[in-house]
What we know:
By secondary structure, the chain is an alpha/beta fold. It contains 9 helices and 7 strands.
Amino acid sequence: MGELDGSVAVVTGGASGMGAAMVATFVEEGARVVVADLDEDRGSMLAKELGDDARFLRTDVTRESDVAAALATAVDEWGGLDVLCNNAGFGGARGPLESISEDDYDITFDVLVKSVFFGLKHATEPMRRRGGGSIVNTASVAGLQAGEAPHLYSVAKAAVIHLTKTAALELGEHGIRVNAICPGVITTPLAVGRPHPTDEQFAKFRERVGPYQPIGRVGEPDDIAQAALYLASPRSGFVTGTSQVVDGGAFAGRSWSRQNRTMTGAAPIRMYRPPGR
Ligand code: NAD
């Protein structure tokens, strides 16, 4: 028995990275999934690989009609909607404040925030008809703490975290749960900074970034897919309005013993023990 047997899901940004891992995991766990993405090549290839339980629909999440169509496809093809992952994203505008144009601002917020709003808006009715559902928004640790990513990306992800809470409060009475995942550094094209990284580029990224993570390795798309599976499944039935950090410990802070060694060059301080103990 799969954890999502009989469920119907939509994953935006499902053609690549953590979205693609969510799609594959959900299908493995018994769900049927609409892959909603701009990338036709990767999206249709993934759906083909997964067979009858996946459909690709070219979707631009900045367009309300496209998001509505992706959710309607789930209902038309498979009779309802149980899970929505609002996951599509990109790096957004970079650089100092004075260099960011109004267009940069608009497209960053359209892709990262407006898309989530459209998903919430159009998932409510089909989920209500089903007696409930689960919505999982991909935010970021950058939405919890400044300085982890460029200005607008950080602010947009903070907005996603807050929208997750406001939506959870409104939709709880319909049995619809809304949660966010805040990934740390995950090995995807977005993090590597190339649309189609080679295996070698992925390997170099892991080698460079892994040692900086408290857990000693960089995150993988499947780490996020497993968190999404938990939030999508009935196992998290009493969990709503939360933001789940999945970052290998990076957001827990800086290790005291390592800081102490760095600052003084000395060995880590040992615990004080009173004489005789
Ligand atoms: P990715 O580049 O592998 O995947 C992002 C997907 O979103 C792509 O398939 C892309 O085509 C799609 N997309 C972009 N704009 C779209 C649009 N307008 N309409 C439809 N689809 C669109 O990147 P990823 O790292 O898997 O990113 C997934 C989510 O995770 C994003 O929301 C991102 O901000 C977030 N995130 C990533 C990291 C990380 O380290 N990789 C960390 C924290 C949060």
